[in-house]
Design a protein that fits this description.
By secondary structure, this protein is α+β, with helices and mostly antiparallel strands. Helices cover about 35% and strands about 25% of the residues.
Length: about 575
Amino acid sequence: MPTTINLRVALWALLGMALFLNYQMWSHDYIDVLPPAPVGANATPALPLDSTVPTATLPAASPPTSTSPTGSLPTGSQPSAAAAGASTGAVAGSAQALVAESPLAPSIHVLTDVLDAEVSLAGGELRRVDLLAYPAAKNTPDVPVRLLNRDAADSLFVLQSGLAPLHDENAPTHQALYSAVVHELRMAPGQDEIKLPLSWNDGHGVSVIKTLTFHRGQYQIGLDYQIQNGTAAPWSFASYAQILRFNTPVERSYFRPDSYAFKGPAIYDGLKYQKLDIQKNAVLDQSISNGWLAALQHHFVVAIVPPTDAAYRYQLQVQGNEFLLKAQGPTEVVPPGASASTHLTLFAGPKIQSQLDAAQSHLDLVADYGTLRIIATPLFWLLNRVHSLVGNWGFAIIIVTMLLKLLFYPLAEASGRSMAKMKALAPRLTLLRETYKDDREKLNRGMMELYKREKVNPVAGCLPMLIQIPVFLAFYWVLRDSVELRQAPFMLWINDLSAKDPLFVLPAIMAAAMFIQYKINPQVGDPAQQKIFMMMPLAMSVTFAFFPAGLVLYWVTNTVLSILQQWNINRRIEAAIRARR
């Protein structure tokens, strides 16, 4: 009916927003995770995922061959005898066997202003990385987030790299033992970077210097190889890097919005960003240029960024809850008596967008803003700019909400005037209902004539609500997935804007504000419908109770501003009506 269409559309808009939000959460589980093309089901399981030595292949441009979900990475045309023999048996191990049975090689402790890391002499593996600026929990400020580690089988997460040989030659793979002249490396005050050189030689004239470069204030790590061929024969290699992880599944819960953040492998192929589903035992084998690959979790990421000027072979293999995600470059040949070099970029840290952008274009996509990224990205940019001025994310949310309200003011003004006129027409609409209560057709015709005569659009009041729904959803993704807002305090009892209000005060304020907003808007519809609409503030506040406090703060601020704006418009409209009389 025309008289109730305004509030009905508002109701459906609010319910649609809640349904869309639930759909987004559901899609994270079932739709957004894009499985790569599977391979045949007859593949034979092999060794634990990082236990075999990769083999370079020639020529580099040859098409990649399919690999087993549990096989070595990558599979060359002539695998090593050890790998071939092992692959004929049952699965030789798991992450538990890998952690428990394999003795750890000596490691070098590296300490920067943001990273506390251990680099193993076995392959130069990054086997532990603690993020000093990020407490694991709000109540444990002295316990940092541990990203890479070999602490236990169900938390195994390491970053490995090496040079693959052509066939079975000796080469510095991720299992080769390096030597170093230091046992600990600390970044001194005023020092911008530190370099950790690791040395290897085959005993016959081939020597390799593998250098890891750590930068002040950054989570990007440079990986460089210097190869010297002192033999009388060419020496071939292919550089590679891989992420090995036991990916413990996250149990989704409505009461923990962060549990809907994606955890697992992802790649960017130069055109498209894909999250890969290991639960479906999917594998990947693809030649990619200008891309990157990463292992994601909420707020943090480990990534490998190959050079942009070469095609790298990206591969994913899965064994149970373990996955091995790898990039291997083309085969390079070092002539006798010559030298060569190669470079990769590694990243292990929080999803700070400025640092992700510096490491590689489109690496900021790992900050998952969902389908509304086109709105969320500029929204975060604006939030970040305001935060740099005020120094508090809560006040930044309030200021940005005010700026958005100012941006949409002309539309909101027109909508508010329409709602104010509707409220002024309420007595006449009530009279029409009483006059034509038994003739629905005449009632509708009479109301339409009244709207036309008074130049009132009953639907106009819903436009601001419809417009702010995508902004609201974009705010949701920004607050949930921007590490910059992780554990960010606001004031008083709110010490984490990315978590729910611990005292549920903001949801209560939100319910009160929405009730006031309801009362100052036109009361149309029959008494039963009005009672239903009166329940909306309570229903919305219960729905929002477990959302991030920053999101509720945005909604409360927006509602309060809407109340003030509508009160002012109502006052002016009523004054104009009195003046005409």
